[in-house]
Amino acid sequence: MWVGGASKHGINRYGRENGIMGELFVENQYRNPDGNPYLWDVLLLEKVRAEPNISLYLDTEVLQVEMKDEQTIQSVTGFVQGSETQLTFVSNYFIDCTGDGVVAFNAGADYHLGRESREAFGESLAPKVADQKLLGSSLFFYTKDVGHPVTFVKPFFARDITQTEIVKSRVIKKDDNGCAYWWIEWGGDHDIVHDNEMIRDELQAAVYGIWDYIKNSGNYDADNLTLEWVGSVVGKREYRRFLGDYVLRQQDIEEQTDFVDKVAFGGWSIDIHPASGMYTKEAGTEDSVPDGLYHIPLRSLYSRNIHNLFLAGRDISVSHVAFGSTRVMATCAIGGQAAGLAAAFAWSRGIMARDIYQNHLAEFQRVMLREDSAILGLGLTDSDDLMPQASVTASHSLTTINTYREDSRIYPLTKPVAFMFPVNPEVRAVDLMVDAQQAGNLQVSFYQTGKGQNYIPDKLLKTEHVTVAAQTHGWVTIPFVWRPDQPQNVFVKVTGEDHLNLRVSRQAFQGVLSFINEPVGELKQPKLHHFVRTSPILKWTNQTFNRENFVFRVDQTAAFTPEKVTNGYIRPFSGPNMWVAPVRNQPENVTFEWTKPQTIQEVRMILNDDLNEDLINLHHHRTAFPIMPELLKDFTVDYLTDQGWQTLANIQANRKRHVIIRLPEAIRTQRIRIRTLATNGSEQFSIVEVRAYSTIQTLRKGVDTHEGD
What we know:
By secondary structure, this protein is an alpha+beta fold. The protein folds into four domains: 57-132 and 238-359, no CATH class; 137-230, no CATH class; 387-396 and 565-701, Galactose-binding domain-like (Jelly Rolls, Sandwich); 401-554, Jelly Rolls (Sandwich), CATH 2.60.120. It contains eleven helices and 36 strands. Strands 16, 31, 32, 33, 34, 35 and 36 form a seven-stranded antiparallel beta sheet that branches. Strands 17, 18, 20, 23, 25, 29 and 30 form a seven-stranded antiparallel beta sheet that branches. Helix 1 (19-31) packs across helix 2 (37-49). The radius of gyration is 27 Å and the shape is globular.
């Protein structure tokens, strides 16, 4: 299965998850460049087994829940079929990550099944009358070219798909595999759990019928193809959704509601499939697309009536409509990290789930941000962190934005294009590199991008009309003066006569994105996608321009100063939120100095792994590099003593974003220095965040260290 998430295959900019899910994406990119599902599975298994505080019980099915009282779970009992063993787990806290909500259901947690009525939450995509319809289940298959003809004799139970709507209403390609056949879906008109075997049989009949059509209809060059794998376990999309203190709804996704208790985010469109699945004439999905990433509140991650029960995955507190977005696996995963940290936080303080929201919210969000959890637009204010008290300097910092490179290529201005850059604190003009044999006219429009997590043309600030002289081969100045109330990005749209040419640089530049006015593929697939709400992100696309930029320059910026590494932000939001050095091909230093000596035993670093780069476990697409180029590869962390600089840690061949350095004994120093020696391919050194603590941070002090207390 594709582990899809907020980036939605690169449609959302800076949408990739950080935290544990982000670490898995980056490590899988390195270990598993071909997207082998078995290597993905073993990576997950290895990471779980490497955690000393996790006891793993595979193939254990929960059969029974014992209650301490009506509102508190005492224990759950499971059965291991292979060893015929019954196990009982007693705890003060439980998290239901079962998908169907087996634990929560047997505990008596309030839930909803099916589609709510339109008036229940005021959702325009909900039906007028509530019903029991759900998203259907799926079964996939993989094929292989064996280099010689292979016959296929269909089993008697295979569906003749020419007698169904599949051939007319869906897209069948002989080279598609696995999740590319997401539309092989059925069962939403039935009980997804209790009718599971019937649904499986129908899906298998459809799979073999589709394969028979590919092999034997004569419409495909498929002689050398054979089936390599057919799923036997049905992939369920939806069943019970349990009720928390808040039910996330359609409006929260479309309007990107900024919850005070935000603890996770999503970005997949509201993607609702017809209950009758592949046999309907309707499009495969009904899509509503927000303008960017949206927030998920803590109140949706615990039960409203079972006080020691947290929720994660498919069964969290969302409406059926909102579930159309939150259901994708990477979004489920970062919600799982939030729920797991919440349970550990509650245990460390002896409180119940709701108490976190009511009495400990700010402290809990600090815990999450320390652990690189996926929260948007919230900076870490941490009284235990020593770094904000230090003055921060760097050997060099980027003070201008200039995307020019000598190998830049000509780009004819045959359609509108755009680029985006951070404005901090102001912009006075933008120079655009233009090539023109004939005279012509440019129209350049400047837009605010709206919310800090959005990268779209939102509110028009100004439009400039510029005449380009004949035989222009260089910089053209676009006058534009803007000093926003706070740092933010500006979206610049460029149109002009098609005999004018811009330049494109084949190199990523931190904090800068470029776009072309080219609708995404889904807008061109009416059989599969019906859009009820679109967004500029679908029309201003970045995928084909990923790691390339239109050539422009801005003469002054404070967006990349060294102070950014202590501003508390661990993701791009209204700007890149990182220190960046200019390209000098030499080591750089970032130095922290206090007014008096400090005791330090732990240093934490968040490194730049370019969250705009879309990654996926089975490689819906493949990157050109095994390790994120922006990640620091070799660096040292040093501290100053009376004898001079001493090395605290010498990190080599790093490929991780979150680096934690713990010392067996604390040191005393007035200055810490990070010396950047090499990246994994980028020409720019960059660091997102640096923190220092006087003691090892443990859960009892507010942070889960992944180590035993």
